[in-house]
Amino acid sequence: MDTAAIAGKYFVVAIDEWPADSQYPQGHFVRVIGPVGNLDTEVDVILVERQIAVSQSALKFSLASMREMPISTTQSPWSPSAEEVARRRDLRDSLIFSIDPKGSQDIDDAVSMRKTASGYELGVHIADVSQFVLPGSATDTEAMARGTTVYLADRRFNMIPEILSEQICSLRGLTDRYAVSVIWDLDREYNATGVWFGRTLIRSACEMYYEQAQALLDGATKVEGLDPKLEASLSESIVELAKAMRVLRQRRYEAGALELASTEIKFTFDKESGAISELLPKSSLEIHRVIEEAMVFANAAVARRIHEQFPGAALLRRHRSPGSERFARLVDAARTKGFDVDCSSNAALADSLRRITQASAGDPDVV
Fold first, then answer.
1. What is the pTM for the complete model shown?
2. What is the per-residue burial (b if ≥16 Cβ within 10 Å, else e) of 304-319?
3. Which among 161, 214, 178 is positioned nearest to 80, based on CA atoms?
């Protein structure tokens, strides 16, 4: 091949073999991806390198999948059918709300928390995508092949078509949506005295972003962007939810849970200027931990129910314990500061890290 044809371009080659007596592998040219430095080419390279897809165009949904999608237009928006509403538990009168990053279009979970005569009622509500994606359908097959939604700085590639992820299955405020819910009865010490699982119909009262919810948790009033008529009720629910999640989190720690701190940074991309801006680190707001704990609580409850009802089909994802050599650098670094780290179990490691954190408060050299 003429080298000029591939100069300054990304291209794909396939390795056919690598003889034992040769310093070089043998292969063949497959295709040119595009010029180096071109944005779309660079995105395609990421997809190829990470074995996500051969190109962006390959991630478009098939005609067969799109034919399976419900119809929703500005003139005729989608609405729940009377037959399906009759089969579901109607929670549209409950104070349910979502908390997500500002500008989110795919709102896939919402929560609720209210006081009762004996304690509290806690709810976690997840968008019911299964209502629209049937087993063995074209959309189901394509979603399994994708496995997840892929997020890049300026774009994303959805696991399911946008008509579902960003519209009909997005738990938008003041809009009727299908959900799958887990609802607990909690006593005043936040012990679960009962739990209900099922398909529901919800109408989220409010789409909040994290900073708004954090402001309510901090006791603020007249939060920008929130309905003044709802603020008091939302504030009460969020404060009670946070109290409950702190207790549940502490119980998980005491039972041996290990959580390693990490910081998720969010970026925004300005298409006109090409500028990428860093926003607030996700770990900086307590409300993130509150929502995360609610989801962990729901996942654990669902896992227990699956194991109870389908013991022969239930799977536990269990990570292999890392070898002691993996902790050598951590142990050595801690010793330079006079600390011992016990890596014999999750609980022991968590306790060691907790003691180091407490003893090193204010020390900039200990992170």
1. 0.82
2. eeeeeeeeeeeeeeee
3. 178
